[in-house]
What does this fold into?
Amino acid sequence: MTENELEAEEVRRALGERKNARGFRLFSKSAAALAVQYAKKRLSAGASAREVAGELGLIGWTLQRWLQREQRGDIKPTSSFVRLEVRPAAVQAAVVRGPCGVWVEGLGVEGIAALMRSLSCSG
It folds into this structure.
């Protein structure tokens, strides 16, 4: 991957996939600021706004709106990119109540699935 592709991936992760009740994506101010910083860098290198929006998984007008807000001073630029290490979330102990009164605690998802498959309640 090129440096631009790595940066675009970091910004895409920061933008996330959160959605509101109507199905529209939600973005934090810090994620929007990162996207604007990346877009300004790419635009100064000759990329089109449409290309940059595509790299970030955004609709073009969203990026254009953020760029306009940044010019007005509504979006504060971030100081720099911060590399993050993404780790899987720690699995909490699950409690599962299954058929025939089976109660399982303390196993991970895979362990619970294997146990439930192995149990036969046809008694």
